[in-house]
Structure formats: C-alpha cells, structure tokens
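hi support,

uploading two proteins for the ticket. first:
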Amino acid sequence: MKGIINLLRVLLIGVWGLALTVCVSLYFDAHSPRQLPGGHAPWTVADSAMEPSYCKGDLAILNMKQAAKPGDAVLVKGETGPLFRRIIGVTGDQYIFKGDGGEESFLAGPQAVTGVCVAYLPGCGDAAAFLYSLPGILLVAAVGLALIILPGRLSGDKKAAPKAPQPVEPAASPDGPPRPARAPRDRYTPRH
C-alpha cells in the first residue's frame, strides 16, 4: 500500500508541476498566444464576431505550426491586436478574413496568421483565463500541495505511538507454583 501511495505522490507532483508551469508561463504572456510543447496554444475567444461557430468565452486550441488554408478559423494579427477570424478566400498573395457572424472583412498576408484552430472547448475560455491569472496560479499551487500532502495523511503515515511493555511471566520457582505476572510500572515509587 505504501508503494502505491508513493507512486501516486510522484505522479501528482509531476502533473502539478506541469500545470503550475503552464499557468505561470501563460500568466506572463496573456495577450498573445503562448506556444506550449507540441506547438499548440490556448486562446480565449474575445468577441462575438465568430458566432454561431465560436462564442465569446470559448477556448480555442491553436496549432502554431500548421499552415493556414481557406476555410480555417485562425488567429490573425489585426490593427488593434490578435483577432480570431476565418479565412474565406485568397486574393493575389493575401488572405481574406471575416468573422462568421459579421459582414466586415479585411486582407492580410499569410505571415499575419499566428495559429490555426484545431479544436475548441465551448465556454472554457473564462476558466482557462482564470487559471493563468494570479489568483488561479495560487489556487493551482494550493490544490497541488494539498493533493501531495493528503495521501500520506490519509494512509496513516504518522509515527507509531510507542507500545506499552507487555508483562513478563516469571518462571516457575522451585519452591512452589508460579507467581502471577505484575503489570509494569510507569515510574518508580519507593516503598516506605
């Protein structure tokens, strides 16, 4: 049982360390997508321009290394910051970008595409944004520490209490029957 708890503790430390590292790295770069191992980055949809396909507050998972093509939902560098839009066509050497629910479109070159959306989690963007805020990092740290400490506490890894000495039965005396065993004394008391 102790081996399983130690293995669980090591796994929890690894998962907790990874989650804390991701939260801290995203905290320092919250206004542009931060590439994680594997070339992916989370991005919270900030406006309703892509509704009904993607709503404000959805979490888009972007592939930062994938080449964009018409029809892809992408994160593109706009004049005021990153925008989540769809490529609806190509004209010359530029893409035409437009939101699914809007009428405005704009042109930009392929170099303006930051990442291509490969998956999304509806409504999870606000929770993800919380996790890479300062209170979220503190919450991840506290929960991780609790999960690492609790398995040891629940398994009874406490120091064992000292056992009371067992009474020793005296050997039979040659003169007669054996004497009854005495209970051990906690301290010495002198006889008067």
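and the second one:
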Amino acid sequence: MSLSPQAERFILHFGEMGGRWGVNRTVGQIYALLFLSAGPLQGEYIADSLNVSRSDVSMSLRELQSWRLVTMAHKVGDRREYFESLKDVWEIFHTLAEEKRKREIDPTLSLLRTLLMDDPSSEVERYEQQRISAMLELIELTTGWFDEVHDLP
C-alpha cells in the first residue's frame, strides 16, 4: 500500500515516539495510521501498509484497545474485523490521561498514602516521610488540576 509522504513522516514519527511513551514502534505506527484514516481499517491492510507481520498488528491492536484508543468495527456482509481510532483529539487526550492515571498515578498515590500511615521510628524515617508527603502533595495537586481540566467541555 502506498502512503503519502506526509502520512509516512507522521507514522514514522509516531513509531519513534512510541518508545518514549511506553509502547513499541509498531503500536505507535498503527495508531498513527488509524488516526489518519478516514474510516476503519482491516488488519491485513494495516500489515501491508506498514510492512509488519499480521501477528504484530494483532498484538498491537489489542494493546491499543486496552488503552481504549482503538475500537473494533464491522461492515455489513463482511466477517472481517476493522479497527478505527478515536477521532476527537480532546477525547483522545481525556482517554490517554485517564489510562495513564489509572495505570501509573493511582498506584503511586496508593503507595505514598500507605507509606505515610506508618509512624517514623527514627530521624531518617521522619525526613523520608516529609519527602514522601511533599511528593504526595504535588501529585494530589496535579491530579486535582487534571480533574478540573477533564471536566471541561
């Protein structure tokens, strides 16, 4: 399949950025291809367009679905599965932020709160708890900001 030079650059960049975002290159490229697509794409088309294996496409699509960034679609009279990305960039931002929070922030908040429940038994532990408390305060402040932004229309 032939991609426009613009699409190719966008897709390659998202692949490169995937590693920085915690996903592999193929996941980033597939997401970029689906994001640019006006309609749902079939897995075989994705594999051919990006020159990657069908099994890589399948695993990557599952990961993107677990992030709620890609949904499955069907076409009347066609038994194959098609996939599409969320279209609204604000909805994409909301979904990514919610998933990052659920996967990364909430467990950290839980750990920090648990650590602060113990009474310090030394000056070192008191100092450590002050540092942990400062970190907790910062994360709670930023998640509060996120909650306010999240509720914007």
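thanks. also noticed: The chain has a mean pLDDT of 92.
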